[in-house]
Amino acid sequence: TYANVYDMIADPSVDVVDLALQPWLRLPVVVAAAEAGKHVLCQKPFAMSMRQGVAMVEACERHGVMLMVNQNSCYVPGFLAVEPYLESLGEVYHMSITCDGRFMDFPERRLIPAMMVHHVALAVHWFGEIETVYCHAHGHDAPVTEREVMAQALVRFGSGGGGLLSCNWSFLGAAGHTHQHPHEEIRVQGSHGTICGHSGEMSVHIEEPGPRTISPDIEGTWFPDAFGNSMSHFLACIGQGSTPKTDGRGNLHVLQCLFAMHRSATERREVCVSEIGLDDDVDLSPQRILGAGER
């Protein structure tokens, strides 16, 4: 046992630190871990401040330790099962992820960084960087400047395709009419076929060279296997010296997308993701962010 997290980090038998602290508490712990030569796995959302996210990435890079964000949507067994078929769809020109349910009180107070981060990360992993977003959001009983409990975002990828990400945690739909996490509905449309379903049941429909439907085997469930898969991936990357597919530096683009969505919702306009600079003072944290030297 340890008196505090910093005693644990100082333990020479510890090689990896898995951080599930709230985002606004992470910076000093990540810096301490990096300084001690420990590899870091951060749970999502990685950060709710752009500068904080950059500071954590730079601390790990400066000390030569690996940093990965547990964007566990990228490690869900059902989604991994259909990944090999993405190239068979031809030109992918549309995708959508729909998630709804009733969960009004959550510590981050903002649905976009707390929940839509899952969908943004998976979309970026599958289809590349997002160029523009147009987002509508609502706080149910509070202004969107204070919180959001639903958001819909039209996104355009640099590859030319587009998508719709819809998440509503204020929905009071009847049973059978919801797509609750972790069973959000995913659809991918290409010139030669489609992928559709949710994490527990995915289907692939391909038109060429001949029409066929594939129901890939899914080994495991979102909970707990998406977490186990991400951890196994991180340990394998450490052992091989390879970059994780959801590494800290790459995840900064995901943060930029989230902040662009919030800006779009508050300013009611399309926003280029590039408008959010890595040194911009963008902060959606519900509490004060701890500084690098605060303990």
Describe the protein in words.
There is one protein chain. This protein has 295 residues and is an alpha+beta fold. The model has no long low-confidence stretch (mean pLDDT 96). It has helices at 5-10, 27-35, 50-62, 77-82, 111-127, 222-240, 248-267, and strands at residues 16-19, 39-43, 67-70, 92-100, 130-138, 150-157, 162-168, 185-190, 193-198, 201-206, 212-214, 271-272. The strands form 2 sheets. It has a 9-stranded mixed sheet. The longest helix is centred in the last third of the chain and has 20 residues, at 248-267. Helix 2 (27-35) packs parallel to helix 3 (50-62) and helix 5 packs across helix 7.
Task: Provide the fold topology.
Layout (H helix, E strand, L loop, with lengths): L4 H6 L5 E4 L7 H9 L3 E5 L6 H13 L4 E4 L6 H6 L9 E9 L10 H17 L2 E9 L11 E8 L4 E7 L16 E6 L2 E6 L2 E6 L5 E3 L7 H19 L7 H20 L3 E2 L23
Parallel strand pairs: 1-2, 2-3, 4-7
Antiparallel strand pairs: 4-8, 5-6, 5-12, 6-7, 8-9, 9-10, 10-11
Helix pairs in contact: 2-3, 3-7, 5-7
